[in-house]
Every structure is written in C-alpha cells, then in structure tokens.
Amino acid sequence: MGEVTYKKSHRVNVAIDIPDEIGQVLATQAGGVTRAVLKAVAIEAYRSGAITPAQVQQMLGLGSRWETETFLRRAEAFHDYTTDDLERDIAAIRDASRR
C-alpha cells in the first residue's frame, strides 16, 4: 500500500502599525482591526490573481463558495476577463462535453 502524507498547515503572523485614529475606525467594523486588515489583504490578493476564491474562503473562514462569491462581489473584486478568456472557456466546455 502507498504511504499517505498530510500537508502540515502553517500560518504567517504579520504585525503592522496603524495610526490610532484609523485603528479606532477599523475597530468599529465587524471583527475589528485584524479582520478588516485580513479582508483587505484577501481582496487585493484575489484581484491581483495571487489567490483563488477557494483560498479567499479558507483565509477568511467563510462557510461556502456562495458566501465567498458574495463577499468578493460586494468588495468589487473582479478579475480582468477578456473576450479571449471567454472564448477559451467556451471551447474548453465544448471539448469536455464531447468526451
């Protein structure tokens, strides 16, 4: 039988300095300063293409794909999606449906 290996989970802790007046504003948001910063990082990482929606979901502990999609839509976090991208996706779907 083959050996099963599990990927060890690692977390990165980041410390940042935020002026008190901005920290106070962020503290009034749901989840406080830490959650506000984590959301901002997730949004920008997704927009830049560095992480996927599934990784956004994992990073923020969101309960479902739909909750993640709603979060990204409300944050207006969209990828540039060109006509060429659409045509490639349609071709891939057609190719997969022929199999």
Describe the structure in your own words.
By secondary structure, the chain is mostly helical. It has one domain (20-98). The protein contains five helices and no strands. Helix 1 crosses helix 2 (32-47), helix 2 packs antiparallel against helix 3 and helix 3 (53-60) crosses helix 4 (65-74). The protein is elongated and about 60 Å long. The model has no long low-confidence stretch (mean pLDDT 86).
Topology of this protein?
Elements: H1 20-27, H2 32-47, H3 53-60, H4 65-74, H5 83-98
Could you give a quick summary of the protein structure above?
By secondary structure, the protein is mainly α. Helix content is 59%, strand content 0%. It has helices spanning 20-27, 32-47, 53-60, 65-74, 83-98.
Into how many domains do the coordinates divide? Answer: 1
Query: Could you tell me the mean pLDDT?
Result: 86
The ordered H/E elements are HHHHH
Percent of residues in beta strands: under 5%
Unreliable stretches covering 5 or more consecutive residues: none
How widely separated are the two ends? Answer: 32 Å
Oligomer: single chain
Percent helix range: 55-70%
**SS-based class:** mainly alpha
- Please give the radius of gyration in angstroms: 19 Å
The shape is elongated
Helices, by number, come to 5
Total strand segments: 0
State the major sheet. none
